[in-house]
UniProtKB/TrEMBL annotation:
A Pfam family this chain is assigned to: MoCF_biosynth
Gene3D superfamilies in UniProt: 3.30.70.2860, CinA-like, MoaB/Mog-like domain
Family that this chain belongs to: Belongs to the CinA family.
MoaB/Mog domain segment(s): 7-174
Taxonomic lineage from the root: Bacteria, Bacillati, Bacillota, Bacilli, Bacillales
NCBIfam families xref list: cinA_nterm, molyb_syn, PncC_domain, PRK00549.1
CDD domains to which the protein is assigned, alphabetical: cinA (cd00885)
Signal peptide: none
Protein name: Putative competence-damage inducible protein
Native source organism of the sequence: Gracilibacillus kekensis
Amino acid sequence: MREIKAEIISVGTELLLGQIVNTNAAWISQRLADNGLSVYYHTVVGDNEQRLTTVFSEAEQRSDVIFITGGLGPTEDDLTREAFQNISDLPIIYDQATLTKMDQFFAKNNRQMTPNNLKQAHVFEGATVLKNSVGIAPGIIVEYNKKIWVFMPGVPREMKAIMTEEVLPFLSKQFKLETVIRSRMLRFIGIGESQLEFELKELISNQTNPTIAPLASEGEVALRLTAKAKDASEAEQMIDTVEQKIIKIVGNYLYGYDEVNIEQKVLDLLTHNKLTIASAESLTGGAFASSIVDHQGASILFKGAAVVYHTNSKAAALKIDSELLSTHGTVSKECAEAMSSHVKKVYHSDIGISFTGVAGPEEIENQSVGTVYISICAEDNTFYTEKFQFNGDRKAIRNRAVKKAYELFFNYLKE
């Protein structure tokens, strides 16, 4: 059976300006995946009739079902119907049920209905009108040139109601949907995207169903496993099988699933092990501490932070021997370990972590830009210290140092 290609078009200049986040497309995609429909394209277009018409024409050529949200309101810049009429020549008429609903709404609220509000009752002749249980403007389904067009309001609450109550039942009958699509995200740290692909080369090369898609982000990488099956249980079992094969190869780098991030994972491990931490930060300037307190539960495990950016502050705040600093320098293993052990003592924490290095723009103590030392002083005063060479500008180097610290913590705590 030929796979049905779906496309989502979100209409609104406010989306392009970033004034509103386009959550509608993500929500619709998830609902369609739950019902076995694959979305091939997401498009955002402003309130411009010519551009809307062009986008609709392109969608008609490549997709079987096109979902449009937005542009169905009463104002002059709501041009979705007009743009579709340009490619279909379908007459626009009033839906009597919607007109009646509008009359009742305005009468109930003691408001005068202005002429432009009537536009919300416009539908295409011969279309299936979709009831809007939480708003005024109805949804519309048009079957034209063997393609199905679904028009819905851009207001998320109204769109979700129409999609759930009207559109999905229609599509289920229309296409006799008997499959679901399920995805799972596997999150890894300590291994690069290219290395991960190399280790899993055979699995990725032979993928069919489920599919395996690597996704890289700053300092970590993920694999999205996607399965299509007759029901959710079968799809999950298919994903489980592939996941186990992946874990046998690179499971040592796996830290979590789906929406879990490495920061929350480390905090969970610290909480589980009833460990407290404190940080001493030079080049990161408190960024690690800030990332900790961004998460709930930080007050239980985070004792405090010393931002010791200047050489003198390392001696003054942490009582680090000035002779050590003059002998080895502030950008050194010795300094990093002194910082992590002393901050642990100062704040009476179980673990201390420190950051020192060169964020740029110029080298320090004959150390090149990007040189970073991170040290963990464990409960038994054992040190886990590593030297790194990061690329990028000041902000990138500092961000990478913080991310790398979470990687070091994860590897330490999972053992």
